[in-house]
Amino acid sequence: MLIYILKRVLYAIPIALSVTVVSFMLVYLAPGDPLNAIAPADAPADVIASLKSAYGLDRPVPVQYGMWLLRAVQGDLGTSIASGRSVTGEVMSAVSNTLMLAGFASFAGVLVGCILGALAGYHRDSWIDRLATALSVIGVSIPHYWLGLVLTIIFSIWLGWLPAMGAGPGGSGEWLWDFEHLQYLVLPALTLSVIPMGIITRTVRALVSDMLEQEFVMALRARGLSGRAVFRHIAKNTAPTVLAVAGLQIGYLMGGSILVETVFAWPGTGFLLNTAIFQRDMPLLQGTLLVLCMFFVVLNLIVDIVQPMIDPRMGRN
Amino acid sequence: MTDIPLTTGQPDRGAGAYQFTGHTLYDPLIAWEANISNHPGKLVPGLATSWKVDAKDHKKWLFTLRQGVKFHDSSEFKADAVIWNLDKVLADKSPQFDAKQSAQVRPRIPSIASYRKVNDYTVEITTKDVDALFPYQLPWFLISSPAQWEKMGKDWSQVAIHPSGTGPFKLDKLVPRERADLVKNKDYWDKTRIAKTDRIVLIPIPDAMTRVNALLNGQVDIIETPPPDVLPQLKSAGFRIVQNITPHVWPYHFSTLPGSPWADIRVRKAANLAIDRDAVVKLLNGLATPATGQMDITSPWFGKPTFKIHYDLAAARKLMAEAGYSKEHPLVAKVIIAQGGTGQMLSLPMNEFIQQSLAEVNIQVSFEVVELENLYLHWRSGAKADMNAGKGISAINLAYVTADPFYGITRFVDSHYIAPNGVNWGGYNNPKVDEMVDKIRTSFDTKVQDGLLAKVHETMVNDALMLWVVHDVNPHALSPKVKEFVQAQHWFQDLTTIRM
């Protein structure tokens, strides 16, 4: 097992390194000028030139990459061109907001998805199955931007129950675990949760219905095991796949849905990415991309390590 | 806006940002009258009570500074502070030089060559050339406190959180990307502009629908630029839409270089006559006014052009026929446009409208659609550049701020400013206009200046230098809780006028 974990960690290193190259280089492929983030549109050439020099943008790209990587491994992602603030600070603040949002959305999505999927799988072709399938299809295919707006219109404008935007009553910039703050989470988290909910419902439904036809389940039943005991076996066998899918979904949500965070003005990573792209803020864009990609790499690593703990056959393979 | 504009002194994010963290926290030497709505406003004393050009040397300007003014940190405003601030943005070797603030303001105060303190309350600024329009540059240059910079460990990022100016508001709290709390400066030196509201919270909400939802939900009381299609809903729910003439025009800027399809004045005039501007205003649900030139007709610089811009398809077709174009042989042109972005109004629908209108008079326009940031590159490079002429692009659609003579008029027609030296994008070169622009620069009598500017504008219109479509009206939507908000005919809105 230790060798397996070590191998997985070693595999992750070249992936992480590739991620740094892609995060850095992708930004150069986009049209436009990063200096537009700071210079007025009609800034004369000498202003642009002195800014380029001040931000080191006049150096060869490989040199810029080398310096950026060196600083990045020390935790310094540079300074945002647009705001002048530390990119590490900006990204970490956004990550904490998105973690909260993605955590709630993932928890709700995975929980509801597992329950709905299991019920649909157990009662294949029943009304429960049809309802679960319909909900999962809606969850996967509905435009989340639109869903967010609809939820806002209903719960914020018509009913006036929940705030329409923002990440807390504000002022302090600090999050508190009280109702006043939590109510800001409800609508964006609900909107985001339909994505993992839909995917996990479909996955669990397929796995459970398939599992019910397996010989070992029939054998378990023939041996007189209770329904609850059989379910435990089915759950254990479906868990690795569900875990892998859930891991990917959580990783995806960590990227923050740009549209959902924009609709709710939620200051998370999606909102930050949107801002960085909009402002052509290269250091901010590169830093945010890097941190998000690293999340994916680490999350996949964790899933890879946890899976064989649940199902030892995977480790042996 | 996606973020709170810079709070250190010179706001970033364009002209519109000055109303939030510029003229709220800080003051310029010369201000723009922005607490009135019934006329375009004029230059008024700010931290300088008066200014005059040296009678013997027209490059030298003397500024008499206001006495008894204190920064928010209680330090006194004197000539040293002005010099220190000029160094902050112009002298890159000075310890307080801030590249970011410098980038914002240097392009807006291009005339300054040198400066010196005469005494505690007098400052002399020398311009590179004789420039009678120089005072118009100074509302962009804001004065921050040297003492506060020292107190914050000479660190601009700390000053951003604890700024100190002389303005009508103080910054109470700043949460980057989320909010800035401004509180009334009860001791503000201009007693006529003491804020009517104790606290104003600025929240950046870039998405238009989210802004509207926040207003409808009661989370905010005023929003900028509500989308045109929600106006009926807002009005029926008791919200007030406030708008006014705004120095902002939405045009097609033609290339007049040889080989451009727009080089023929008949074609340019025909294009201007082919647009039903009232229909464009209708498309925007009333959030615009028809343009009959670069400036709004109420501007003192509009003049009396002989070419009357209006909707006349027959006249437009006649001009096109005279120029040798027909249905079988239409004029073909490519225009570079933005997919959207600040100030571009409803870029795509409006451009499609223009495209269909021009087709009516045998002008087939195709679009190169780019992001606004990319469009700026094409703009700065000029029509002649490879990225434009090389791709067959012969006109650019970019909304222009027209707040002062330089921004609104001279930079587009002066042959010295032909791109890449400036934003005379289309390469317009008219010696008579150059002569008038030179005279404007050397005429220190405002009436003479205004008269000459009107003549230049007349020539622009008569030459149909651009296809002018509409002027922006800078709409705001107000909740019923807002009792008063004076919307100036400018980008510099005075937030002290808000009363709840």
Keywords:
heterodimer, A: 317 residues, mainly alpha, 13 helices, B: 500 residues, alpha+beta, 4-stranded antiparallel β-sheet, 15 helices
Give the rounded overall mean pLDDT of chain B: 93
Note poorly predicted spans of chain A. none
Q: How much is the average pLDDT of chain A?
A: 83
The outline of chain A comes out as globular
Judging from the principal axes of the Cα atoms, what is the shape of chain B? Answer: globular
Q: Tally the helices of chain A: what do you get?
A: 13
Secondary structure topology:
The complex is a heterodimer of chains A (317) and B (500).
Chain A: H1 2-29, H2 45-54, H3 61-73, H4 87-122, H5 127-141, H6 144-158, H7 179-212, H8 215-222, H9 227-254, H10 258-263, H11 269-279, H12 282-310, H13 312-316
Chain B: H1 18-22, E1 27-28, E2 30-32, E3 43-45, E4 48-53, E5 60-65, H2 79-90, H3 99-105, E6 112-119, E7 122-127, E8 142-143, H4 146-151, H5 156-161, E9 169-175, E10 179-184, E11 199-202, H6 208-216, E12 222-224, H7 231-236, E13 240-242, E14 248-254, H8 265-273, H9 277-283, E15 289-290, H10 313-322, E16 331-338, H11 347-359, E17 363-370, H12 372-381, E18 393-397, E19 400-401, H13 405-413, H14 431-442, H15 446-462, E20 466-471, E21 476-478
Parallel strand pairs in B: 16-17, 16-18
Antiparallel strand pairs in B: 1-8, 2-3, 4-5, 5-7, 6-7, 9-10, 10-11, 12-21, 13-21, 14-18, 14-19, 14-20, 15-20
